[in-house]
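Design job #97: recover the sequence.
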């Protein structure tokens, strides 16, 4: 019951927010629901699904409650079956997809050689990809893991950084190291890095290589140029799987030409390449993150609409101006076919 309700009954409050017309009362191991018959039936289905997830060993959070409620509302199956698949279990917690979009993303990684995970911040694109990489290494499906990302400053000029080349590059790769330490024993990670079983490197180091029997993750792919994206994808060797993650709304390239944006059009429809698109519904961070993403998406759509309307108005004004100029030119001179030829014109002279 403690795991079902959460600390300070946090999950109970989340259930009540999903069904405002239902009142939940807990006495010991008994949960009572009071409200309209339809709302109570929906809340009961949700509570039963959460109980099954707890029995399966899942550590529930508010996002699990909201995702489960959404799945039941849309009739997309049983949340206990859809969201209970653990990718990794260790260090006191399990890593698993928490939304339908994440579940489809993880399944696509299993079924395809190259998978693109495209979506806003907080949707677990990189985290789930790295979990699948560690899982593949533990199952001996691959011989090594290669994690890479472009070393692009996020709108800032850091200037000269002291230290060796590794010291200069490490700040850009720190998120990948942090995720590794969460998924694996921190004492083992340095050994795997030293032996080359796990490699964390900037994208520039990939040129000229052929990556065989590896699980390769390219993070922050929206900051690759079209040439870098082509270079990376053509490193694919035998027995290798690739996952490319990025958010096309957060491009930090000076020119703004993103290889991730282009590749969605160039490779669309090719067999064994899958594009998994995550949305604000798949955000598993603080609930505010999803609302922030939606707000920015709405703002960008309105800005694009205003730009389109200005362009249309400019085109219409230009067409009207050109038509006016043409009319003025026609009024200012007589058409040639209305003027008699010079040989037929009467000659002026003195009469005697």
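Job complete. Output follows.
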């Amino acid at each position: 019951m403690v795991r079902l309700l959460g600390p300070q009954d946090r999950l109970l409050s989340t259930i009540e927010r999903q069904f405002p017309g239902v009142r939940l009362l807990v006495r010991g191991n008994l949960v009572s629901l009071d409200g309209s018959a339809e709302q109570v039936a929906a809340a009961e289905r949700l509570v039963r699904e959460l109980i099954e997830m707890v029995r399966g060993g899942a550590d529930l959070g508010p996002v699990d409650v909201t995702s489960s409620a959404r799945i039941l509302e849309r009739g997309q199956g049983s949340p206990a079956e859809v969201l209970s698949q653990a990718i990794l279990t260790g260090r006191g917690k399990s890593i698993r997809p928490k939304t339908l979009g994440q579940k489809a993303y993880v399944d696509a990684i299993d079924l395809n050689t190259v998978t693109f995970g495209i979506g806003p911040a907080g949707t677990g694109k990189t985290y789930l990809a790295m979990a699948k990489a560690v899982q593949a290494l533990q199952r001996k499906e691959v011989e090594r893991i290669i994690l890479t990302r472009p070393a692009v400053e996020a709108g800032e000029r850091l200037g000269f950084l002291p230290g060796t080349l590794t010291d200069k590059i490490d700040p850009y790769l720190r998120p990948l190291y942090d995720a590794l330490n969460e998924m694996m024993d921190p004492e083992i990670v340095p050994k795997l890095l030293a032996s080359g079983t796990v490699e964390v490197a900037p994208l520039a180091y990939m040129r000229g290589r052929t990556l065989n029997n590896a699980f390769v993750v390219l993070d922050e792919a929206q900051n690759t140029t079209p040439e870098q994206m082509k270079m990376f994808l053509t490193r694919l060797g035998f027995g290798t799987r690739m996952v490319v993650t990025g958010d096309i709304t957060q491009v930090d390239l000076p020119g703004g030409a993103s290889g991730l944006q282009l590749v969605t059009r160039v490779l669309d429809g090719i067999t064994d390449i899958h594009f998994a698109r995550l949305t604000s519904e798949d955000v598993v961070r603080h609930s505010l993150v999803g609302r922030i993403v939606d707000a920015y998406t709405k703002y960008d759509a309105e800005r694009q609409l205003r730009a389109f309307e200005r362009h249309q108005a400019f085109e219409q004004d230009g067409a009207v101006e050109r038509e006016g100029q043409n009319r003025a030119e026609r009024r200012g001179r007589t058409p040639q076919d209305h003027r008699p030829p010079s040989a037929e014109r009467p000659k002026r002279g003195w009469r005697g």
